[in-house]
Structure formats: structure tokens, C-alpha cells
Amino acid sequence: MRVNYLAMVIAWAIYQPVFADDLDALNLADSAAPSTVKPRDWNLFIEGMYGNVNLNNDQGSIPIDRLSLDLQVDTALAPELRFYLANRLDLNGQDYQHETVNTLKEVYLSWQMASITALDLGRINQRNGVAMGYNPSDFFKVDALRSVVSIAPSSLRENRLGAGMIRGQYLWESGAITALFAPKLGDQRDSATFALDFGASNPRHRWQIAATQKISDGLAPQWIVFGEQGQSPQVGLNLSLLASDALSVYAEYSGGRSASLFNQSKQIDNPTRFYSRLATGATYTFPANVSVNLEYQYNGAALSKVDWQALGRQPTAYWAYRKHVFSAQDMPTQHAAFAFVTWNDALVADLDLNWMFRHDLVDHSQQSWLEARYHFPRLDLALQWQYQQGSAASVYGALPQQHSLQALVKYFF
């Protein structure tokens, strides 16, 4: 369908996985309902979008639109048993052609067996990582996107498929350990509107053990060991430190033996070697509600500058590689830089301004994203602008869209 073209246009524009769940100051498009709404067992919002996409190479422009319904439920079934549900229904449109995609993000039971132990069973969105622009240790991000509705960092991590799993957690005074197992539940992706799509979320047996231990005030590293059927185990490490009242620094790492991303795109599992991935950065908060995040990103399994330039001369292999990298939510080249600036209550109360900038350090292409969002008690109004530039076969210059503008209305029930 032609409407699928738009999904790839937007998706390729924002292939990197991103993180904002623990940075409440960002307050982006898909955050929870405003704090003025009284806490309850459920939250429901409806969002409408209309915009225009200008294509590269003077190919004109196309209108885009979307209508979304998002429901979250968190309720107690018994004193020690809770039920969680998160579901999103999107009607995505391009050039007045539409398709409907439902994403069952989470549905699971949580049993608080004791004050220090818990057991969860069902579809769970397991998110790892302290970085903002690239999350090497977020192992469950692969093939998790069904509908890309926003390039806001929080949206890509929030609006994705969870995996069917059983998860247990044990807590002690200065740390915690979590273990989970996600069995294989499907073989192929299912694009049907209301598909559970276990072929995407649970294509093979996977497991993970994560441990956190407080070392000192403000420093509690997280160690992760992750494994999946037919692959070597991967290790992950998350570090964050509050250096001052205004400055926080962090590093996120993963490493292990695997085939290169290029060989994976050709479904070649060998040879394997040890590859490292890293995201490290800092966030500084200024007195006037302005936060600035800067981040360096590295992916050892991606293509070097020479290999990336050579691949650009092979269109079929190039786009097969780009498609695989997008599905894996990984980086196509080895080095990149990222910046995010947010200004809450900018100029007037309840007006938030956000700017995101990505720069590929291999081919020097770049992407900018700007958002102005005004919060009413139950209503958000937003205007978003996105722009890409670069050479024809670069990370951002190769994308079909050059720039886009869209207006959004979001109502919280």
C-alpha cells in the first residue's frame, strides 16, 4: 500500500533508538497525562495530527494525517495483584490514503509476593538504558515498532511492542536483581491491524539478568547479561552520576560476539567477532528551566566510512541494510553526535520548546527537529518541524523527505 511509504519515510528519518523515560523535564509528545489530572486506575487520550511532507529532489509535497487513541490501565485486582494494560490504535494517512495499526504495548499481571519480591507475567515493554539518543543495552528494541507516530525520544520507547515474558525481581536495601525469560511465540511478523504480532516481539527464546547495586550517593551501576537463541551472550552496563545539582553525566555500553550489521542484513550469521557499542553524554540544567543534553554515540558493528561510501554505490544492498538497521533500531555508521535542548515554561507558563539535533560523524549529514507545545489542563496543542540534509547516499540526505511540518491536538479524558 502507498501509505506504507510514509511509514518508512518517517521511520528511516529517526532510525536511532532513544531514551527519555527517566528525564521528566523533557515532557515530550507522548508523556503521561498532566499532573493536574487526578491519579486514577486508567488514562485515555485521543490525538489528531495534520501536516505536510516536502520530498527531496523537487518531487513535490504530500499531506499526512493521523488519529490516535491511547489507553493505559493500572489497577489492583487484589491487595498483592495488579493488572497493567497499554494499547494504542493509530489511523495513519498519507495523501488521503489510510491504514489502521493497533499496538498492544503491554498487558500483564504483577504479583507482589512480598515487600522485596515481585513476579510479572504477560506482554511487557522491557526498557534498558540511561542514554538519551542511543541505547546500546536496550536489547528488546529489535523489531518492536509497529507504528512510528513521533520522533520524540520518549515516543519510540513508549509506543512499541512489549515481549511476552515472565519476569521476577528481588530487592534489597541498596540494590535489586531482575531476571526474565521471553520464549519464542511466533515465526513471522504480522501486519494485520489487530495482530498480536508475536513473530516480531517473540521470534526466538531470549533471557536477561540485570543487577543494580548502590556504590555511593548518586552512583548505582546496572550490569546486564542478555542472551538469545542461536547467539552469543551480550553484556551491558549503565552508569549515571549526579555531578552537581545542575549536571548529570552518564555512559551506556554493550558488547558481545555477533555478525556485523551488514552481514545480518544479508542474513549471514558468520563470521562473528566482538563488537562494542557506547553512548556517553551529559545533561546540564540552567536556572531558567532550560536543559541541554549532549551525547556521543559509537557502534562497532556498523559500517566504517570507507564501507559506507562503497555501499552507497549499490542501491539494492544499501536500502536492504537501511531497512535492517531501522528494524534493529541501531546506527548505520560507527560514529554520531546528538543534542537535545528543552525549555519548559518558555516565555509564558505551560509553553514548552524542544529542539533535537542529530549529526552523523561519518558522512556529516544531519537532522533537526523542533517542537512548540502548549499545555492546557486536559489539552495539548503542538507544532512540529523536521528537516534533513546531506549528500545523496548519506544517513539523512538519502531519506525521501526533506522537511515536514505538522500540527497536533491531544485531549486527555
TrEMBL record:
Keyword terms: Signal
Keyword Signal attributed: yes
Signal sequence range: 1-20
Protein name: Alginate export domain-containing protein
